[in-house]
Give the backbone structure.
Amino acid sequence: MSPPLSPGKTRAALRTSARVSLDVLLVLIMAGVALWLLGKAWSILWPLLLALLLTTLTWPPTRFLRNRGWRPALAASVVTVASLLIAAGIIALISVPVAGQSGKLVDGVVDGIQWLRDWAAGPPLNIGDDQVSSAVDAGIGRLQDSVGSIATATLSGVNVVVNGLITTVLALFLMFFFLKDGPQFLPWLSRQLPGRLAVDIPTVADRAWVTLGSFVRSQAAVGLIDAVFIGVGLWILGVPLVMPLAILTFVSAFVPIIGALFAGFVAVLIALVSNGWKEALIVLVIIIVVQQLEGNVFQPMLQSRGLSLHAAVILLAVTLGGSLAGIVGSLLAVPVAAFVAVVWRYIREQLSETPPDPEPDPAPDPGPHSGPQSGPQSGPQPEAA
């Protein structure tokens, strides 16, 4: 027979559980309030985050120019203008070949649809033309009934495009100011914060900046490797739109895992429409091989000293970000997860028990030539004027 429970220990355990539950509830409430505030301020947070991502890419050339004696404003202006020219060139490299190949792609899509109809008409489906025609008529009827919804969606799409342009312009201006005045931010922030916050927040911000830069640069390197290998494979097979597909592969690399799947799907689809199922199968094999090399060789090498996040954490973060905020959430999921990891590691460092300093060995009297000795002071020291 088991011994009876101790009333005192039971009450103590219940009080501890209640206190911990209350603490967790307060933390969750504060986290909910913080997320609500972030949602209200999203119109300015999104351009700010986009500007930070762009700044991590453009800061190395800016730093190079500043180290060569260029004034901060001139270096930031030159790098910003060069970035705009590069972005315009990328858009031209995508749009011009797509416009030139549009007729061929449309013919390929039509032929693909006809092939699907012929295949569906045979065994084992045996779908006749009358069934296909009735399905097409039903689709047209639903489309006519949804004219109002389509108009509303079109207006919403126009609003999204306008908001995207405004966000891009604002992010470019912020990027210019970050490139120009970025190194002065942390010292200014330290002077504005009281007490220990003057040390903690700038330290976390500096570590987060290093982590964000490591993420962006490693993803850019991985995307470049994917784009080169996949682009060469598409070029050898004679798949059209090689340059736009390579650029799409490079850009999609900034959305881990999901971006690679999307770019690979587009490449296989275009190969299927333009070259047939054999070439599409070869393209699929090339993409799988390149993705395996990226995931098992290149990415661990490039990110080993960067994010320190497990692949499962990255996958879950991208999935959660995409479900909460779509493409924007997928793009920001890994940087946010890395920032949370930085904050958590810093909190653990501050809360960990450090071993006490060893006692000094007894020493003989130093004599009258020694001045007064002062021990180390704890806490943040005031900044020298």
Observations:
- The mean pLDDT is 76.
- Residues 41-144+153-182 form one domain.
- The first helix runs from residue 7 to 40.
